[in-house]
Amino acid sequence: RQWFSIQLPGKADPDLSAAQDDTLQILKSTRHKRKLQRGAHAANGFTLRLTQLDADTDALNQRLEIIARQGIPNYFGTQRFGYQGGNLGEARDYAARKALPEQRAVRSRLLSTARSYLFNRVLAARVADGSWEKAQVGDLLAFTDSRSFFPAGVDECSDPRLAILDLHPTGPQWGEGHSPADGATAELENAIANDESALRDWLVRAGMEHERRILRLPIGRLTWHYPESDILQLEFVLPPGCFATVLVRELIDLVPVGQTDSPCVF
């Protein structure tokens, strides 16, 4: 379930019935004096069906139970990077030329792609060393539904809100200035930024602000069942800006969906 806003000033309400089919149901339409701003909604609810399932359902259930308790790495999904990773290739081209796209929509898309790629590289490194779901001294911590963050000292690393998935370590969304993290966290983030210095410098020249994104994604109200022996239906809620496809990828060993050359780094 997701709200969409369509700008129709001074125009009659459109007939939306023709937009419905077996894959799309319009639950409600209403007028509002303002458009829906990006990220302004509280959450997104999903119902996904994985069909032609060929898996050990006991193992699949165990994996889903772990995900419900522990969350998953909060990667940006493959769709952020475009068809076969084309967005990142475009971003690298502009970065190499130290130029920006003239069209605002293209500029926004490619800058977001570059930031997402750098974030995913940091998260992949944290997953590899097992620290993605644990706070370490030098981290910057944030709550699930907040864009603000604060530094983690020894006391903050044992905050009980970490264990109940309310509080999380964060990774960088690169922009002006160095990583405000400290210690091993800063070393890792700066090493990856230095390795991708063309993209980093491009983001800085574009005037992007350094922001943070939680490394761990809690899966809200996760339930599942099997309508048929070869169909798994998942229902869950995610915060704004998080990707349902990433949850599916966490089941990839059990539900293969094919390989991709997309540079999402997970």
UniProtKB/TrEMBL annotation:
Enzyme Commission (EC) number: 5.4.99.-
GO molecular function: catalytic activity, acting on RNA; pseudouridine synthase activity; RNA binding
Swiss-Prot/TrEMBL GO biological process terms: pseudouridine synthesis; tRNA processing
The keyword tRNA processing is assigned to this record: yes
Annotated signal sequence range: none
Keyword entries, A-Z: Isomerase, tRNA processing
PANTHER family, A to Z: TRNA PSEUDOURIDINE SYNTHASE D (PTHR47811)
NCBIfam families: PRK00984.1-2
Family label: Belongs to the pseudouridine synthase TruD family.
Name this polypeptide is given: tRNA pseudouridine synthase D
Gene name as annotated: truD
